[in-house]
Amino acid sequence: MTIVSNPQAEAFETMRRGVLFLLIAWLLIGIGLSLALIGMFTGALLAPSHPGLGLGEAMGALAAMIVVVIVGAIIALVGLWGYFVPGVRKLAEINPEFSTSATLIRVGLFYGLILLLIGALLIVFIVGIPIVFIGVILIIIGYIGLIILSFKLNDVEKNALYLAAGILFIIAIFVSLAAFVAWILLYVALGDSIKKARQAPPPPVQPQPTGPLPPPV
Question: pTM of this prediction?
């Protein structure tokens, strides 16, 4: 049996795999920030009676946050560069309407996340602040690409989950927690698109041209 390749379904599957990495990264970063808040709160409570212990709690929480956030950022970079960005690029090869969003996502999200990671590591120095600022601007550009992508997918796939994800990505520019919900909706919607693409009938096989028949003997 001949297996018919389905480039659109493959693009959606690659994108969906990347979204899964990004969701895991989001959870890790959220855990890291939660550890920092808990540690700083505990340190503030202990500081009046045990100054040394309170400072130790705060510094330990800060170190744990840095480690977890760095691991989360690395996972996010793997998800973006290894899966999501190539999937969107493949989708743009199939449908040029996705070319703009593919470029914005690649330049904005991937390189913006790298600059944020570098800036976070150098935040104790003055040079880290402008790096973080540039990274935030690139991240916003990447979110604009995600918004365009979601709305285009809603137009093509006729799935309201894409529309909801696009709206949440707009909100995420101002409220970052909305991005986590948007990625979840995008993950579910891509699963629907994969099923739809797999169930679509394969393109008709074009008949091969044949030359003139040889004269009868």
Answer: 0.78
